[in-house]
Amino acid sequence: MGYDRYLSGGPEALEDRSHKPSRVWNRIPQPVREKVKDLALKESDPSLRELAVQFTDTEKYFVSEASVYRILKSYDLITSPAYVVLSAADEFKDKTARPNQLWQIDFTYLKVIGWGWFYGFTEPAASEQAKQEWRLEADQVALFVDEKCQADPTARATMQDVFLNYQLWASDNGISRTMSKKGLRDRLTRLGFGATKSGAHRYVTGLKIDA
Q: What is the pLDDT of residue 106?
């Protein structure tokens, strides 16, 4: 082999070659990164989540909210979010006077201008149902894929394994109202993952579940 390399390329061809891959296997390709940047510049003041969902739906290429943040930050398009410092007082200015007047003392959600809504702060039990509704309406599957899976064109996983891992993830995150197996499969298809069937088993292609 070395002699063949010498004949085809001369002495330079015998020099040691780097075994480092030309690019990271799961890095978002540069043309896709350019499209994300162009979409962000085109839209008027969108949130990172809105950009991720819109890009996934229109381009049929899944990018997470975190990926959008990293891409835009690399182009120096992320500014420090505006915020207001809130200080807690020792007591309420307007005190309760009747049994039916109950004050909620912690945030259930907080909006940071130019960034988006943050949920999950301490809240009374009465608003737990509202939080579950929000989590169901938010894109559970995109969050699950972002946190527990990897996009790998050569990989495939049985739909049963994906569904079981999704249920475990939902349980760990306090999500009680989960999607059905069919709903999960349909949403994964919308995110750009393939679906095949072999015998009695259904598979999701292009998806690798983290160990």
A: 47
The verdict on pTM exceeding 0.70 is no
The CA-based dihedral angle spanning residues 73, 75, 76, 78, taken in that order and rounded to the nearest 10 degrees: -40
DSSP labels, the chain: -HHHHHHHH-GGGGS----S-SS-TTSPPHHHHHHHHHHHHHSSS--HHHHHHHHHHHHS----HHHHHHHHHHTT-PPPPP-------SS-SS---STT-----S-SEEEETTTEEEE-----GGGHHHHHHHHHHS-HHHHHHHHHEEEEEEEEEEHHHHHHHHHHHHHHTT--SPPPHHHHHHHHHHTT-EEEEETTEEEEEEEEE--
Half-sphere exposure of 31 (CA within 13 A, CB side): 2
**What is the separation, in whole angstroms, between the first and last Cα of the chain?**
39
The pLDDT, as a whole number, for residue 161 is 92
Positions in the chain whose pLDDT score sits under 70: 1-3, 6, 17-25, 44, 79-139, 211
pLDDT at residue 200, as a whole number: 85
Domain 139-211 has CATH 2.60.120.260: no
The answer to whether residues 185 and 199 touch, using CB atoms and an 8 Å cutoff, is no
Give domain limits for the chain: 26-80, 106-138, 139-211
Residue 114: what pLDDT?
A: 59
pLDDT in the model for residue 92: 62
